[in-house]
Amino acid sequence: MVAKMKKNNKNNNVIPFIADGDFYFSKGVDAFYKRKFDIALKWLKKATEANPKEALYSCQMSIIYTEIGAYHAANQILTEVIKEHGDHYFDCYYLIANNYAHLGLMQDAQKNASLYLQKDPDGEFKTETEQLLMILEAGMEEEFEEDDDWLEEDELLIFQETVFYHLERYEWEKALPLLEEMIMIFPEHLLAKHEYSYALFFSGRESEALEREENWLAEHPNSISARSNLAIFYYNQGKFEQSAVVIDGLKNVYPIHAQQCLRIAFTFAYTQNYSEAWNRFLRIPKSKVKGHMNYYRYYSLTVYHYEQKDKALQIWQEGCRQHAFLRSEKKPWE
Length: 334
Prior knowledge:
Tetratricopeptide repeat protein, Serine Threonine Protein Phosphatase 5, Tetratricopeptide repeat, TPR-like_helical_dom_sf, single chain
């Protein structure tokens, strides 16, 4: 009897732990940074259930939906935050604009990006929003432009696929005449001109390639293709300071299209900016770039330099399964 009473008294001294919204939120954020998105969503849903009026929880949940490509779901949450909390969460407008851009709804993206700058002109995402607006307002010009002709013209598609085939295999002499013909027939497709410069450089005509891209960048300072090419050209020539200056202009650029994201990630990896490359490769949806051998070459190289050698080998082996040509190459880190 005495023992039982002592046990009860001991239990009465126990202070129960009651988890609150902040506890769930911290768990969710921790899972998010570990890229365990399913787990992060579960914790954040618990946080919003514990404190439905805390907009921060909902905003973080929307960011996770954006990361996994559920853009509509993300915008639905952000719209509710604006509805419930008025104009206290200006960042929602930028996040909504970014999601609309990914969905291809450019007018909606432009509208919300402009609203963000109007309501919070010195906000945290000012630079990113201005960059997004620049892309949208330019009508996706240059390499961002996905002209209908590119998708619909059979002749152009054949050129595109054939040139891509040779460039991926470093067959510069075969790619050059095709690119020359392509530029002549389709002069408005500017990406072909940058691919031509790239093939020129690696075929041995370095001075000509450099001059072309330097002139282009002088006229079009925001050209990603020109910056990417020049960063690689200078790096190959041992002009590391010049390469660093040019590549610095890519560090705050986050394109919408996966192929352009890959181009920037590849450029960072090629020039041994592995930290930048790592962050970019993690953002690229593999399903959209698995047809590119450079994805496997430079993603595995980047991962290898992050001391994740088993994962690097796994990525490379997957690339070899996808592309038989890679089996004839040494591993990128060798």
